[in-house]
Amino acid sequence: MIVVIHTFAQGRATSRERDMHARIVLVTGAFTPLGLTLIDDPEVEILIDLMRSTTKNEQIYAEECDLSSSASVRSFCSGFIAGKETRLDAIIFAHEYQQIGSLLSRDNPAELTKHRRELSLATFLIVTLLLPILLVAPVERDIRIISVVNPFYAAASSKYSVVDVPPPISPLFQLEGRRSLEMVIFTRHLQRVLDALPSAGQVPKTDETTIHVVSEKVQKSNIVAVSVCPGISRADTVAALLKAKGSQGRRSRLGTVMWVHSSSSSLILTGYSSYVLIYPLLRLLTKSPSSAVQSILHVLFLPTPFKSSQTSANRPSDGSAPEEVLKAGALYRECAVINVRVPTPVGAPSGSDSEEKKDGSIPDDRELGGVHLGQSVWESFEAALKEWEKTVPSSDMQAAGDDTPSVDTANS
Predict the structure, then answer these.
(1) Does residue 12 surpass a pLDDT of 60?
(2) What residues pair up with 287 in beta bridges, in sequence order?
(3) Phi, psi dihedral angles at 152 (to 5 degrees)
(4) What is the pLDDT of residues 353-378, one digit of tens each?
(5) DSSP 214-275
(6) What is the pTM (predicted TM-score) of this model?
(7) Residue 323 in contact with residue 317, Cβ under 8 Å?
(8) Residue 232 neighbours by CB under 8 Å, 6+ apart
């Protein structure tokens, strides 16, 4: 019985594989437990050298980028764009997974809210700054933008509204759920924007037996944006909830980091002690980092409709299930698509997902609140980003470079 419960708690493991040779993947939050598992080594100091020697690949790098500073994000992106190698096959935003705040925290609620917003804006800023180099990539290239979100989105889905922002003293799960859900809605709308661009819908000119476009309604762009929820991880979720970890230090064999702050050492020791006491139960009921990463690998390895190996002529006729392909804009959990019901904004016009708008605007698919809610979240990010950058000293913005692309996008 214990083995069955543990196996069930670890969730589904992906059965997909993909040749990632010569692919370039950008991972944020790479030195969190989930990120370290994703890039396959726990030792930060020797990580890069070890991976270079093991894979015989010198094209592995770690660059510092302070995601709480817009100037640092712009500096990183401008440096990447100005580099010799600007190819990107995937961007994985792993820094969004770990929640901010804990059940034992005495931190300033306003500061925690500010930090949550900064991390979401960092994702938005990176996407908009790097999007130009993704759009000029060859249409045959399979590009993926993966947003990793925490598992509390359900706490905000039933009553979500862009304008009704909960106060900073609201329950932790509500605040984190709103942050997670906003990123899911943004990612869905990002896919709508990508599909609506003039370059979208170009069929790759290759052998039809290896590349087949299932339908323009399934995928119009070779750039696919998806959200992934890895579930409840003991190292990233539970340890943070109990304040049993910090941003520095080494991971212990319990899968967490202990970093004692002089100002809150008693709370951290309490949280760490609680974590150790319930660790046998956590071992049984929560995911390890290697199990949590499975859904991310699943959406990274799944073929897109552009890269599906099945054509209309060779699909199975024996009643077996057709090949699974990645659903653009969807939220994945446990290696499967999750449908989250989000209220449609009051006053939003009704429409069918099959309708094509003659005025060039995006047709409303009604998914995750529909196009109008997605547009509202996008615009709220744009407005918040402008306010965030006003707090950055002008000297830092100059250091970030004046040649970075503008984040202002065409009205969609």
Answers:
(1) yes
(2) 233
(3) -100, 15
(4) 444 454 456 777 778 888 999 999 99
(5) --TTT--SSEEEEEEE---BIIIIIHHHTT---SSS-B-TTS-B----SSSHHHHHHHHHHH
(6) 0.80
(7) no
(8) 151, 238, 286, 287
